[in-house]
Write a structure and sequence with these properties.
- The complex is a heterodimer of chains A (about 160) and B (about 625).
- Chain A folds into 2 domains: about 80 residues, 2-Layer Sandwich (Alpha-Beta Plaits); about 70 residues, 2-Layer Sandwich (Alpha-Beta Plaits), CATH 3.30.70.
- Chain A is built from 4 helices and 8 strands.
- In chain A, the strands form 2 sheets. Chain A has a 4-stranded antiparallel β-sheet, covered by helices on one side. A 4-stranded antiparallel β-sheet of chain A has the order 6-7-5-8, with helices on one face.
- In chain A, helix 3 packs antiparallel against helix 4.
- The longest helix of chain A is centred in the C-terminal third of the chain and has 14 residues.
- In chain B, helix 3 links the parallel strand 2 and strand 3.
- Chain B has 3 domains: about 220 residues, Rossmann fold; about 170 residues, Rossmann fold (3-Layer(aba) Sandwich), CATH 3.40.50; about 170 residues, Rossmann fold (3-Layer(aba) Sandwich).
- In chain B, the strands form 4 sheets. A 6-stranded parallel β-sheet of chain B has the order 3-2-4-5-7-6, with helices on both faces.
- Chain B is built from 26 helices and 20 strands.
- With about 625 residues, chain B is α/β, with parallel strands linked by helices.
- Helices cover about 40% and strands about 15% of the residues of chain B.
- Classes of the chains: A alpha+beta (about 160), B alpha/beta (about 625).
- At the A-B interface, helix 1, helix 2 and strand 4 of A face helix 7, strand 6 and helix 10 of B.
Chain lengths: ~160, ~625
């Protein structure tokens, strides 16, 4: 089962290595990991995606919560949340077919050099997969990079 | 980043420290914080990257000599850094205070990996301070450089690499706080040499914010058991007919043994302890069942099989205790658990009632609630049949061995020592058969008298731990019960004993090999003794001890002289070494084999089993 874990981490030397090490030493493959600054200069936000048995993941979350640098840890998979991911792709050849894909997915063209097109797409991870597939079918893929997942819990809206 | 922490640390209350505002180097600050923490001994081995701190220790001691001429912070020098850290761990285990080791960078620090991991696994509070190459040289493969924050990060409770000198003082204080708070453990502080040499101003009161850690700690400290939760506990206990307390090392580290005794005696509930919990409950108490598990007493294991209510206190259902989780305590209708670590609740076996918090406070709360609500099984006799059953188990399945052997039996040696020390000495051990015999045959009337490497099982622990324990408790007899293989691991520390003229008593139970390994090879590998036999080894232990300056060093190989030799050995006023040549075939029984259930326990030839004989040769096993 897929688990999306969000961690607020103190900016301390080695803090990221300790979190990643905890997962690695138990044999978990980290599917995706993003780390970025937060408005709080002392803390960074980590978003991790792993696959594993529910009970084992519960235990690893409890163990992670014991790390001194961890400020907060939550599993978002079990809460109502939004996931977004950024894709950048450089294609070569068939620029009109690439443009059709861009149109279809609502992606953006960042640069053009001859028949090479640099495309940016943001969406849910499965949309990113589909967009990448479509671009691969449309043209030759030279290079691509994915940002990993940024996730956020959906606000609970109450009527006033 | 550290500058931010610095400013936050700075807004705390104004310092009332008499040295606040004084100009000091980083190294001086290290020593001042150690003095402020109330330490009276340090263990360590010098080297290039820690020299400024060693110099500061020297100057501090010179300037603050006590009236009797002794140093306030004596620095005890081992044979190697593993020894230093096990001494600090022995000091911590015996005293309950944080033990400190001061080491140099690179090999000095990597030699500390084993004791740091050992202390983490047994929840022992240590602060290990390592020198590191200068900040500018980090990551360049400089001389004696090792990536300590990465290496230790996987082994310690926490690691600090101090790259900003202005955060040094707050970091050191915080290291002590983390080591001794919550579930205790080792903290490593890696200090580059230039940080040690930086001119700074001493503040005397700062700590790092550590807000996630402190918030979780506060939640645990503030946790009390609600009226409803108490009621649920006593409802389940009231339904039980055969309740049993299963107490672990948490009893010792939380200082809860008096509360445990009160709980057990008030409600008449028998107690079995884990290896780490030994001494948390007086083993001579009528309700004591001694240790349970793989090499626990047969009566403790049978009681665990028979009980219908398990109350786990600071115990983590380790594989050496539980064996097969699904078959552990098979008749228990309720398992209740108290632990300071939320990650331990239900980790191995689901529990029906739990509380996360301090054991001592929790037990006191439950005793008061039970008394207030008229829970009085002593008076209404609801556990009388269970008490009679437990007493019968203790009588019928008592520990025993061949008492008329022509060879010295290790159990008899321990019994002879125990008759003199009466459960009041500090006993340290290596790892293997001698460790299990000591756990089984010694009495322990108080906590912090039994020091052993429980979870990690580190051979070589006994001798340096005994040295550290003797520094913590000058008033007690400290005995290292060791094996011929275990003592070889840190045999360099024999000289440390005599250098500091410590009255440590060392017993080597020599069975010419790795006895526990041999026992497993006999049981599970058809007697192929691969690399476990040391009968061709040439070491003369007595002459080795004499060479290290032991004035009392003897070999005992005559069974008729056991009592008199041991009396003479223990009476010697100073370091003493006794090698005992024991029956090489002596085994550790009972034994619950790896991956086996308590019902399949082997009790050996001399302890009565209540089931039929079980085949002694099991098939190869995937369990360890």
């Amino acid at each position: 089962m897929r688990h999306l874990i969000s961690i607020l981490l103190q900016n301390e030397a080695g803090a990221l290595a300790r979190v990643a090490g905890l997962f690695a030493s138990r044999g978990y493959n980290i599917e995706s990991l993003t780390v970025a600054a937060t408005p709080d200069v002392e803390a960074s936000r980590l978003t991790l995606v792993i696959f594993g048995d529910d009970g084992l993941v519960d235990q690893i979350i409890k163990q992670s919560r014991k790390l001194v640098d961890v400020i907060e840890i939550a599993e978002l998979t079990r809460r109502d949340h939004l996931e977004r991911e950024l894709l950048v792709v450089r294609t070569d050849g068939a620029p009109e077919r690439v443009d059709a894909c861009v149109q279809q997915f609502g992606a953006r063209v960042l640069e053009r050099h001859g028949t090479s097109v640099l495309v940016e797409f943001t969406g849910q991870p499965d949309e990113v997969d589909r967009c990448l597939d479509a671009l691969m079918r449309a043209a030759e893929l030279c290079e691509h990079a994915r940002s990993g997942i940024a996730a956020i819990e959906r606000a609970v809206l109450t009527m006033a | 980043m550290n500058a931010q922490l610095d400013s936050i640390g700075d807004i705390s209350r104004p310092s009332s420290h008499p040295l606040a505002g004084k100009a000091m180097t980083g190294a001086d600050i290290v020593v001042q914080v150690l003095a402020d923490e109330g330490l009276d001994v340090l263990f360590g081995y010098s080297g290039g990257a820690i020299l400024p701190v060693y110099d500061a220790v020297f100057r501090h001691n010179e300037a603050n000599l006590r009236d009797d001429g002794s140093e306030p912070l004596p620095l005890i020098v081992p044979a190697n850094e593993q020894g230093a850290c096990f001494m600090a761990a022995g000091y911590a285990r015996a005293s309950g205070q944080v033990g400190v080791a001061l080491l140099t960078s690179g090999p000095g620090a990597t030699n500390a990996v084993t004791p740091v991991r050992d202390s983490m696994a047994d929840s022992i509070p240590l602060v290990v301070i390592c020198g590191q190459v200068p900040t500018a040289a980090i990551g360049t493969d400089a001389f004696q450089e090792a990536p300590i924050s990465t290496i230790m990060g996987a082994c310690a409770k926490h690691v600090f690499l101090v790259t900003d000198a202005s955060a040094l003082e707050a970091t050191l204080r915080t290291a002590f706080h983390i080591a001794r708070s919550g579930r205790q453990g080792p903290v490593v502080v890696d200090i580059p040499k230039d940080v040690q040499n930086t001119p700074l101003t001493f503040r005397g009161n700062r700590e790092l914010p550590m807000r996630g850690y402190r918030a979780r700690l506060r939640a645990v400290q503030d946790a009390t058991i609600s009226e409803d939760h108490c009621a649920a506990f006593f409802a389940a206990l009231g339904r039980a007919k055969r309740p049993l307390i299963y107490a672990g090392g948490g009893i010792i580290s939380s200082g809860a043994s008096a509360s445990l005794q009160k709980f057990s005696r008030t409600f008449g509930i028998p107690v079995t302890t884990t290896l780490m919990g030994i001494g948390g409950f007086d083993t001579t108490d009528p309700l004591a069942l001694h240790m349970l598990g793989m090499h626990g007493t047969a009566y403790a294991n049978y009681a665990m099989d028979d009980c219908d209510f398990v109350f786990a206190l600071g115990a983590r259902f380790d594989d050496r205790v539980v064996g097969v989780p699904a078959a552990f305590a098979p008749r228990a209708k309720t398992i209740a658990q108290i632990d300071i670590d939320p990650a331990e609740i239900g980790k191995v076996k689901p529990v029906h009632w739990h509380h996360v918090g301090h054991l001592d406070a929790a037990l006191q709360r439950l005793v008061k609630y039970g008394q207030r609500h008229g829970f009085s099984p002593r008076e209404d006799g609801r556990y009388d049949a269970w008490h009679a059953h437990v007493a019968a188990l203790k009588k019928d399945h008592a520990l025993n061995y061949q008492r008329d052997s022509a060879l010295i039996q290790p159990y008899a040696v321990i019994e002879a020592i125990n008759r003199i020390t009466d459960g009041r000495a500090i006993i340290t051990t290596g790892v293997g058969q001698h460790q299990m015999w000591s756990a089984q045959y010694f009495d322990f009337r108080e906590p912090r008298r039994w020091l052993t490497s429980g979870s990690m099982g580190t051979m070589g622990f006994g001798l340096p731990a005994a040295i550290g324990a003797q520094f913590a408790r000058r008033d007690l007899t400290v005995i290292d019960i060791d094996g011929d293989a275990s003592i070889r691991m840190n045999i360099g520390e024999m000289e440390t004993v005599t250098t500091y003229n410590l009255p440590v008593k060392i017993v080597v139970l020599n069975n010419a090999g790795d006895g526990m390994v041999r026992q497993w090879q006999k049981l599970f590998f058809k007697g192929r003794f691969s690399a476990s036999d040391k009968s061709l080894h040439k070491k003369d232990f007595v002459r080795a001890a004499q060479a290290d300056g032991f004035a009392w060093a003897q070999r005992l190989d005559d069974p008729t002289r056991v009592n008199s030799t041991i009396a003479d050995f223990l009476a010697f006023d100073g370091p003493a070494f006794l090698e005992v040549v024991i029956d090489p075939d002596a085994g550790v029984y009972p034994m619950v084999g790896p991956g086996a259930t308590y019902a399949q326990m082997i009790t050996g030839d001399w302890i009565a089993s209540r089931t039929g004989p079980v085949a002694e040769t099991a098939g190869p096993t995937g369990m360890f």
